Amino acid sequence: MKTRVINIEEYKAILTTIGSGFTFKVNGADRKFRPNQRVKLALMLEGNLGVRIGDTLNLTLNSFRNNGTNIVLDIVEEKTGKNRTFTAPKELYLVVKEYALDNKLSTDDKLFPITERAVQKQLKIVCNYLGLENISTHSFRKFYANEIFNNNGQNIELVRALLQHSTIAITQKYLGVSSKEIESAISNHVHIV
């Protein structure tokens, strides 16, 4: 399965469905998918911060800090070992803080004491229910990348920096920008005076 990017409607439908729960059939028997705020928030953070799911699952309330002006997120990326410090939207931090309070988590407790596999399993059930294919947790990081790309003048360097890719070629592949599309864009942009 090649993981694909999700669009905003799919993003909302997946998170809403995870948050509200539903009934589905397995071998003719009704089964319940209970509302799961933990999985919903983990995927929401991935989709809003561009952080890989493994790094998202390692977050604590202490991962977020107020620097006097902004809320800043400090992580060490599990995959690359790179330090990453960036501004996190205050609205998102408030949701995380409320979640931590509701779940009686201390500032050092992991926000999501679950595995990537557990999140993926829940996501698969929801996507099957919604009739969506080729979606994994990584689709939420790709969603973030595509939203940043499309809402910021298709600035691929910005996306590269935010995802901490080493080259623009990796980011192009990530965004699904093919060499053929690049060549077509170049050849269609000729202004000879």
Task: Describe the secondary-structure layout.
Blueprint: H1 8-20, E1 22-26, E2 29-33, H2 37-49, H3 53-57, E3 64-66, E4 71-76, E5 83-88, H4 90-102, H5 116-130, H6 138-151, H7 156-163, H8 168-175, H9 179-187
Antiparallel strand pairs: 1-2, 3-4, 4-5
Helix pairs in contact: 1-2, 1-5, 2-6, 6-7, 7-8
List the defining traits of the structure above.
193 residues, alpha+beta, hpI Integrase, Chain A, three-stranded antiparallel β-sheet, two-stranded antiparallel sheet, 5 strands, 13% strand, globular, Tyrosine_recombinase_XerCD, Integrase_catalytic
The major sheet is characterized as: 3 strands, antiparallel
Strand % is 5-15%
Strand order of the largest sheet: 3-4-5
From the coordinates shown, what is the CATH architecture of the domain at 8-140?
Orthogonal Bundle
Which stretches of 5+ consecutive residues score pLDDT under 50? none
Radius of gyration: 19 Å
Total beta strand runs: 5
CATH topology label of the domain at 8-140: hpI Integrase, Chain A
Dominant shape: globular
Proportion of residues in helical segments: 40-55%
Number of helices: 9
Protein name: Tyrosine-type recombinase/integrase
Keywords: DNA recombination, DNA-binding
GO molecular function: DNA binding
InterPro entries: DNA_brk_join_enz, Integrase-like_cat_sf, Integrase_catalytic, Tyrosine_recombinase_XerCD
